[in-house]
Amino acid sequence: MRRRGIGFWALGALFWAYVLFLYGPTLTILVLSFQGPEGGLTFPMSGVSLHWFRKLFAGGGIVDIGAAFGRSMRLGLLAMAITVVMSVAAGMAFRRRLPGGAVLLYTAIASLIVPSIVTSLGIALQFRLIDDLVNAWGVEDWTTAMGLYTSGLGAHLTWTLPFGLLIMFAVFNRFDGRLEEAARDLGATSWQSFRHVVLPIILPSVVGIGLFGFTLSWDELARSSQAIGSVNTLPLELQGLMTTVTKPDIYALGTVTTGVSFLVIGAALVAIRVLQARQARFGSDAGK
Amino acid sequence: MNEQAPRGVSVELVKVGRSFGPAIALDDVDLMVPAGSYCCLLGPSGCGKTTTLRIVAGHESVSSGDVLFGARNVTDLPPRARGTALMFQSYALFPHLSVLDNVAFALKMRGVGKQERWARARELLGVVAMQEYEARMPAQLSGGQQQRVALARALITEPQVLLLDEPLSALDPFLRVRMRAELRRLQRRIGITFIHVTHSQEEAMALADLVVVMNQGRIEQAGPPREVFNRPRTAFVAGFIGGHNVIPWQGGSIAVRGDRLRLAKGGEGLAATVAALEYQGSFILVTATLADGTELTAQIPDDSFDAAPLAPGDAVSVGWEPEAAHALQ
Questions:
Q1: Exposure check for chain A: N or C terminus, fewer CB within 10 A?
Q2: Which 3 state secondary structure label does DSSP give A280?
Q3: Strand partners, B303
Q4: Does the pLDDT of residue A87 top 80, yes or no?
């Protein structure tokens, strides 16, 4: 066998240091969440138990974690759906010569460059202006237009949409437009060509955008902070807990949320595999 | 195929122009392709041959002029209303569909039921001898097999005109010659009009009833292969189809085939100097330079060369029979 040079070992060490840096914190939290009932927020472990998970699910804490969990889940799914539909539609639109397309693109991407907290503040101020306007019109009992599914959803979309859009651009960059021409030549309408040719081919990337959309929304903090309205998402609750809770149940919560993320990704991967296997076996008649 | 196999239709271009901004891709092209004939559009890249094909297919619009199929004006019809089928240069098979579903695609778009369209697709796969591969994905096929599938997929629409965009250029030379023969046989059998774009004059000569030589958005010459080869109309055609020498002659120029030139030391003819010799087996390719720098290539049969050998640097006279020369426009 060939002798490994020093470069191999140096790069290998760098790689493992990177892996450790990436997953070390998550693993630490995971381990600490199984802290014994008498244990504290740091090592050493004083025994191993499920005590903090039990405490977490029993409720009775300062905040209602279950409700925040549900809110984050619903918001994430909604943001995911909108991101997928809009990214694919925009990706298709940008393949043609689109008047004003460049400006539109830059405004979307700029949202990634502007600091998140500034975006969040801006959204909050904007909604306050809307509230003032509604009040000036004399609507009775009006409190605010801010909320989870208005300003909160908007804030999350400013984060998820540019990513989805950029992925879609990369996908359509590699997409062979002659396939659509062939479909048209064989009598497909525009919709049929999209439904039977374009969509099946880009589907794995579309699932990827969905995953991106959900996870970006699921753990979003800075953009939510000023724009979410009167209720909190899970990350916001977590942040609140950080300052008040001094027990390892916050680690248990961290482990559970990480678990949800992995579950969603795992489910999506399984779904893709099943779809591919089905397609290979039955031809492409899915959904017809 | 059905008992009443779809017969071809004539394709006529009347003063068809196409410009992309200031660039003129087609300049008032007039062309008549008879029904059921095999037409090759021949020319260098950028000559407008692919644009012409795409205009006939309906994938490209005209800037001026009309496209007629028989007596029907199809200028403003979309591709699927024309009765044409286009076979793409890269075949453009759908990568996510099996061979069978690729071929059945057009029928699926028309809402034909699964069993019926699969039965029909299997028939077409039979025509191109690809039945055993119906379950394969396109990525699992060789270039030649992909081409057959693309052919079957195009023919399932029962087109009156089949359009082929450089169909053989992606194949290796051996396969190219074989598929060429198969295309010709298929065209004879189903009797529809084929319009085939190529940059290979050899391909056009071998296949076509009608060769259309194009250059810079214009048709230089259109006619049967023998006519185009034996009587090139312009210097461009003579140069492009190869085997010809363009010689300045009495204020104009003439074309003489390389195998009709005679080189002799001394005697009547144009004075030239032998520049290079290439042994080609049955003949020797002799390059000679005229006094004004014009290069001529002559194919001298090996026995006549052996009888009077030449060497680079030899002064020779170049001659030809009067009927071998054709004046060029």
A1: N
A2: helix
A3: none
A4: yes
Helices and strands counted in chain A (H then E): 12, 0
CB pairs under 8 A between A and B: 69
In CATH, which superfamily holds the domain spanning A71-231+260-281? MetI-like (1.10.3720.10)
Cα(A139)–Cα(A142) distance, integer angstroms: 6
Q: Is the ipTM of this complex over 0.85?
A: no
Write down the pTM of the prediction. 0.77
Contacts of A46 (CB under 8 A, 6+ apart): A35, A36, A38, A39, A40
How near does any CA of chain A get to the CA of B134, in Å?
10
Least confident piece of the model among A19-23, A272-276, A284-288, B30-34? A284-288
- Nearest-CA distance from B295 to chain A in Å? 43
pLDDT computed for residue B175 by the predictor: 84
Q: Is A197 helix (H, G, I), strand (E, B) or coil?
A: helix
Residues of A in contact with B80 (CB under 8 A): 184-188
Residues from B contacting A (CB-CB < 8 Å) are 57, 59, 78-80, 84-86, 88, 90, 92, 94-98, 100-101, 105-106, 108-110, 114, 137, 153-154, 157
Q: How far is the CA of B135 from the CAs of A260, A277, B125, in angstroms?
A: 39, 14, 12
Cα A65 to Cα A75: distance, rounded to the nearest angstrom = 15
CB-based contact B105 A178, cutoff 8 Å? no
Which one of A179, A185, A198 makes the best mutation probe of the B interface by having the most chain B beta carbons within 10 Å? A185
Question: Residue B97 has what pLDDT?
Answer: 92
Lateral strand order in the sheet of B161-165: B84-87, B161-165, B193-198, B38-42, B210-215, B218-223
Cα(A263)–Cα(A275) distance, rounded to whole angstroms?
A: 18
- Lowest-pLDDT choice from B187-191, B201-205, B247-251: B247-251
Taking contacts as CB-CB distances below 8 angstroms, the residues of chain B near A174 are: none
- What confidence score (pLDDT) does residue A270 get? 85
3-state DSSP assignment of residue B40: strand
Report how far residue A54's alpha carbon sits from residue A33's, in angstroms, rounded to the nearest whole number.
11
| Helical packing angle, B99-109 and B143-155, nearest 10° | 20
